[in-house]
Amino acid sequence: MFDNLSNRFDGIFKRIRGKGRLTEADVDAVLQEIRTALLEADVNVTVVRNVVERIRQGAIGIESSKALDPSQQVIKLVNQELTSILGGETLKISYASRPPTVVLMAGLQGSGKTTNSAKLAKWFKSQGRHPLLVGADLQRPAAVEQLRTLGRQIDVPVFSEPGDPVTTATRGLAEARRLGKDVLIVDTAGRLAIDDEMMAQIRQISDQITPNYTFLVIDAMTGQDAVNVAQAFHNTLNIDGVILSKLDGDARGGAALSVKEVIGRPIAFASTGEKLDAFEQFHPDRMAGRILGMGDMLTLIEQAEQAFEKDKAEEAAAKLLDGDFTLDDFLEQMQSLKKMGPLGGLMGMMPGMPKELKNAKIGDDELKPVEAIIRSMTAAERRQPEIINGSRRQRIATGSGRSIAEVNRLVKQFGEMQKMMKRMGGMTTGKKGKRKMSSMAGLSGLGSPAVPGFGEAPGGDGGFTGFPPAR
Amino acid sequence: MTTQNLLLILLAVTLVFGFGVVLIGRRSGARTSPKAVDDESLVAEVVAPIAPVNRWGKTAVAFAGILGGVRSRGGITNETWDDLEEALLKADVGIGVTDALLNGLRQRVKSKEIIDGDALLVALQNEMTARLDRTDRELNFAAVEEGRVNVWLFVGVNGVGKTTTIGKVSAQQAALGRSVVLAAGDTFRAAAAEQLETWASRSGAELVRGAEGGDPSSVIFDGVQRAAAKGFDLVLGDTAGRLQNKTNLMDELRKVRRIADRQPGQVTEVFLVIDATTGQNGLAQAREFTDAADVTAIVLTKLDGSAKGGIVFAIETEMGIPIKLVGLGETIEDLVPFNPAEFVHGLFAG
Q1: End-of-domain residue from the set A270, A289, A308
Q2: How many CB contacts within 8 angstroms connect chain A with chain B?
Q3: Same domain, A253 and A135
C-alpha cells in the first residue's frame, strides 16, 4: 500500500529534471508528496508540518549546482533534515563513579519493556559490566516470571519481591550494592500516559532510585499518539534516551522522528529481532531512508557484505563491467544472492529500481529453471554460449528438463545482458560516470556513512539505477 | 518460465548483485581515500545538531481545541478543512481515508447542502458512523455438530494484549454459562503460559499448556481434544505475538489455524488484536494476518489511553473486517462490544 517515495517522485521529477531552478509550484508538488510519505510513515501531523516548512525554506530558489540537479538537491535536503532530527547528539553511556549505574525502563503496556530490559542487560554484559535486573512490574500476571526466564537465558540475576513496586525497586538497588553489581536495570509495569496514579508511582520509583538513565521504550509501529506518550513520560521522568522496539517489523517507524522532535532526546537503541542479541545502537541515517521509504540501502549493503566474499565480489564486479561476465559467474551470483534472502525483499530495498522490477513478484523458485539450464551446460558452453548448436541445445534441454525454446531464450537474453553491462561499464568510466561520482561525493553530506545511491535514485539517468525497465 | 519472467530474473540478479558490489567497492574505497576526509568535514558542517529547543511548545498550544476552531469560525473556510484533516490524521485514520472522507463532504458544501462548520463536523461524524453500519458484530458462537467445539483464535503482533484479551473473554464467556478451555499457544514468550494460567484461575477456565518452545499447533489441538472429551463449549486459543513480515512465523500461524479447524475443533472466530496506539501499519497487519489465518473480527485494545485507534476505521471500511470488541481498561468489564457512534465521537474528542 505504501508507494515507495522514489516511485512517487518519478513523475514530478521527470517534469522538473533538467530545469536550472525550481519554481514555487515545483517545490509545492514535491513537498506534497513528502508530506504524504511522512504521514503514511506515522510521523505526527504537527511534526510533519514543521519539517515540511523547514524543507520549503531550504528548497525555494534551489539552483542546480555542478554536482546535483534540483530534484536531487531536494531529496538531499529532505534526507538531511530527517537525519539531523533523528541524529544530532548521540547518547554516550557514562558509568556512575559510585556503582551501580542505575537504569529505569518506562513505557506503555506492550511496548516491549521487559524484553528490552533483558536485551539491555545483555548489551551491558557485552560491555564488560555486571548487571542486575529488577522486576518491578507487579501488575501484569507473570511479568516477573518472564524477566526471570530471560535473566536465566542471558545469565543475569533477577531481583524481585511481591508487594509494592516502589519498595521492590528500592530494595533492588540495595541488593545490587550488596552483590557488587555495577549496573542496575529496573523493569516497570506498562502504564498509560494519562493514568495519573500510575505516573505518580513511576515518579516515586524514580525519586527513590535516582536513575542515571531513564529510557522510554517506544514501539516502532506507534501512530500519532507517540508524541503525547513521549511528552507525558518526559514531563514526569525526564527521559534520557529512547529505545525503539520492534524495528524488525515492516512499519516505517515515523514515531521515532516524532518522539525525537518532541522531547529532543536521542534514540539510543533499536530492537531488531526476537533474539536477545537483536539489539543495537540506533542509526539515524538508516532510519531517515526508511521513513521516507527510500529503501534501506545500508541494510542491503550489510547483507551483501555478509553474503559475498569481498575479493570475489570485486573480481566479479570488474568482470561485469568489462563484459567478461560468463554464465558461470552468473550462477555464482545466484548462489550468493540466495544467501542474502528472498530476491523480492532485496529488490524492495533498492531505491531507484525500475517500478516494473520492484513490483514483479519473483519467487526464489523461479530461479530454479535458470539454474538447471546453466548446470546442464559444459564448462566451455558456460564460458562461450555462442558455441551452443542444435545438438548441444538438445542435450542441455534434456539434461535440465526444460524445453529447447527455454534454453534458447536464456542464451539469447544473457547475450543481451552482457552487452548492456558492457555499455554501463563504459559509462561509469566515461564522462557521465565522472559526473556521477562527483555527485556521490557531494551526497556524502547525507550522514556518515553516506547513503549511497540516494541522490541518483530519482535521477535515474545513468549507472545502475538507470537501467532500462523490463518489458 | 515466461519470457518476461526470465528477463526479470536476469535483470534482477545482475542488478542487485552489481549494485551491491559496486557500493561495497565505493564504500571501502571511501574509507581509505584521502578525499573521504574532506567529505567528513563537510558532514560536520551540514549535520550540525539541531539544538533540542522545544519546537513542540508552540504547536502544542496551536492545536489545542481544533474542533473549537471549526465551530467558532462559523462559516467554512480553508482553515476549517485543515482542522478537520488534522483531527482525522491525528486519530490515525490515515491520509487516504481522510482525503476520501473530506472530498465527499466538499461536494456537499459546494452544493450548499452544508453551510457552517458545526454542521460540517456533524456531517463528517455521521458519514463515518454510517460507514460502520455492519450488523454482524456479535461474537460468533456457532451451533456446531454434536461432538465438535467452537474454537476462537487470538492473533496479532507482539504486545497488543492478546493474552489479556483472552483472559477477559474467558471470564465473560464463563459468566454466560459456557465452559471454557484456554490453550496456551504462545510457547515462545517467556512465561506467557503462566500469565494465561493466572487468567484461567480468575475465570474458572481450564488451562492446557505445552512445553516452552514447543509446537503451538499441537497445544491448540490438545486443548480442542480436551474440550471435546470433557464436553466443554469453547476453546480460546492464544498465539505468540508475531510481526506480520516474518514469513516463517506467519506460516506457523497458518498451520495453527488449519489444525484448530480439524475435527473435533471448528474455528468460529479469529480475532486480530490491534493496539489503539498502532499507526498505519495496522492495515498491513490486517492484510497479512487475514491472509494467513482468515481473520474474522478485530479487537481494539488500550482505547482508554490517549490514542484514538483510527486505523481500525480504515481496516473495517477498506477490508471489510468487523470490529467486535474494544478494550477500555484493566478490568474484565472493560472489554466491551464495539459501538460505532461512540467510537467516531471519540476520534474527535480531546
Answers
A1: A289
A2: 313
A3: yes
